[in-house]
Fold this protein.
Amino acid sequence: MSFAAHPSPFPTGRPNWRQRLLHYLVVAGPGLIVMVADNDAGAVSTYTQAGAQYGTNLLWVMLLLLPVTYFVQEMVARLGIATGQGFAAIIYQRFGKWWGRLSLADLLLVNFLTLVTEFAAVALAARHLGLSPALAVPLAAASLVLLVGTGSYRRWERMTLALCGLNLGWVFLAWYVGPDARAVVRGGLIPSLPAGGMTSGFVFLVIAIIGTTIAPWQLFFQQSCVADKRLRFADLRLARLDTLIGAIAVVVFAACMTLVGDALRREGVAYEDPAQMAVALRSVVGGAGSTLILLMMVNAALLGAAAISLSSAWAWGEVMGVRNTLEARLGEAPAFYAAYVTCVGLAAALVLIPGAPLQAIILGVQVLAGVMLPSSIVFLQLLLNDREMLGARFVNRRWNNGVNWTVIAVLFALSLVLAVQVIFSGTTL
Amino acid sequence: MSDTTLPPRFRVIHPLDDVPEPRLYTAELGRMPLTRKVKFALLLLQAHIGLMLLLLGWRALTLSGVV
């Protein structure tokens, strides 16, 4: 008998700590993976740039985003557990074909562009590590295909969680560069503007941070992941804990990346991209530290690429009505795996075309994701108020709605700010 | 993941090994009822998407030197 599947199988009424821990371990995964994978190559670039340009001044934005990202992803986990369906499938079925296909097209476009940036980061890091991108990029693409093609959700989850664990390297690096503890606390707790005030570059970077911390693919990924793992009603509490731990982890790692970027600022070196930063910081972190930064960049890119490609393949399968589970072998879900391999293969191939402005693409994608996010969150909010489907137990509470409509209003406002900025200042989108 | 040292009653079963439970969504539910709030939200979305398309169009015209 599973205590997870049955509400009260305990004679004492309460499970002991060991049972609770075991239950958490079987439930944990989707929340942690979606959050840590969110710190992908684009995020490494955005956060290190934030540190290199504005020091610890933007840490408060990240701290502010912790509850926001948790609330948004908690809704996704709840919807996934209640319906047993992915986000794309539910949009398609509850809002009709037009909205369903539009959401899928949006997702596939943003995901594909983001995937290109992941492979661009692999190429960039490989070049600085003395490897040929022509070798490193196909190798990365092949490893991503091998990661999902095992025919076992559990195997994929364990390998992906191991990649997530490697992010602890950022904590070590942040500690090693010796940040000013007072500045960190002040930057994290007291909202402030940098010395130059609210410039267009500053606003752009804030929108990029929001775009990278709460990305549309995350909504689709976590719900599909929860549905594929077949989490049960009784797992909801621990799925929330999994999401909360993931949200804390993503903000801690983001802050650590910012502190590494801040070390570059303190060295008085101008920021170009994370790989240039790794090389420029050699005098601070040593040759091994510099290599570690480049490897962390590759790890972030691989983790992000794995999650983003999977969210595309899952969503594609849901809308097309084909089998889409990691529990299936390649031959048992050919359309699902073909979608995954196509996303990975095309993005990897595109990066090998010379002359792409990598840093501009990376920041641009984060901004584009920030622009598109409001649409996905509006669907999420409407679905979480769908009493006919979810009943009283799973629908949003009044305070949930208050928080979420506020988040949506802020996201729309930021989108408009970006739109005005792009039109009137000629900033490149 | 299961713990065999505990009595069977307390064994923790991985969701993938558990008996599937009925979910709240069924295909018979069909489309969401278009209440005033839902209509307003979808209208807002259409306006947002329209604005973004205009923005992209503007950028395309600017970059190509037409405007």
In short: The CA atoms of residues 56 and 62 of chain B lie 10 Å apart. The mean pLDDT of chain B is 78. Helices of chain B lie at 36-63. The two ends of chain B are 63 Å apart (CA to CA).
